[in-house]
Amino acid sequence: MGNMRPIRAGQELVQLTGTSAKDGPPAELIFGDWYPALRASSLKRKDTAVTTLLGIPMLLGRKSDGALFAMRDLCPHRGIPLSAGWFDGETVQCKYHGWRFEPCSGQCQEIPSLTSHDSLEPTKIYANSFPVVERDGYAWVYVPEAGAGRVTEEATLPPVPELPKFGSRFRSAHLQAELPCNVDHGIIGLMDPAHGPFVHRAWWWRSAASIHEKTKKFEPIEDLEHDGFNAGFRMSPHAPSSNSAPYRLLGRPVTMIDFVLPNRRYETILAENARGKKRWFSSLTTVTPVTASTCRIDVIAAWDIAYHVPFVTPIARYFGAKFVQQDQQTMIEQARGLRSNPGLMLIDDADKPAKWYFALKQRRLKGIGEHPLSEPVELHWRS
Question: Which CATH number describes the domain made up of 171-382?
Answer without folding.
Answer: 3.90.380.10
